[in-house]
Amino acid sequence: MDEKLRIKWLGHSCFKIEYGEYSMVIDPYKEGMIPGLSPLHEEACEVFASHGHNDHNWFQAVKIIDGGAKSPFNVSKIISTHDDDGGRKRGMNTIHVFEGEGYRFAHFGDLGESLDDKRLGEIGQLDVAMIPVGGYYTIDASVASEIVKKLMPKVVIPMHYSSESFGFDVIKGVGEFLELTGSVVEYDDNLIEVTHDTKRQTAVLKYKG
């Protein structure tokens, strides 16, 4: 049995996650939506989207594998808002929590609000948290770091931020979030392989195009 959880960052909030023969893509974006990012052309057993905006729900970018492996993960959906005004600005957002094979990991989508204790309890103890940090459309570095400190996931992967070469101008880079978190590991790849022995860290993955 393959015990590695392979997590590949495809840019913005999009990830491809593999466990053995199973694969999923979360929050695929439409071509041309995000400055500096290459078009997506992926294959996976399943695809998920946190909400209905085209920089997160472009299912056409993912070819579903015919007869693909069955998911080893149970999925919980936790409803949140895409803004700090009850969803009145940008609508609702779904946090996906996956659990199976001894792993529990969450993709926070375009979370735009702080989370109350009830929802934090529903999310629970995580091996991996993929969380937005850039602000404006989502929570910013400060709110993201507060959530991380409460949940204490083993691996934190920041997403939905900008750099000199990609991202929306109105959102910030990852630097402020990294200053607020500890154990930063910068990877020279867009892939991290998580095992049950992986050390606690904030994993900064490199966009590969």
UniProtKB/TrEMBL annotation:
InterPro entries with a match to the protein in the record: RibonucZ/Hydroxyglut_hydro (IPR036866)
Annotated Gene3D superfamilies: Ribonuclease Z/Hydroxyacylglutathione hydrolase-like (3.60.15.10)
Name listed for the protein in its UniProt record: L-ascorbate metabolism protein UlaG (Beta-lactamase superfamily)
Taxonomy of the source species: Bacteria, Bacillati, Bacillota, Clostridia, Eubacteriales
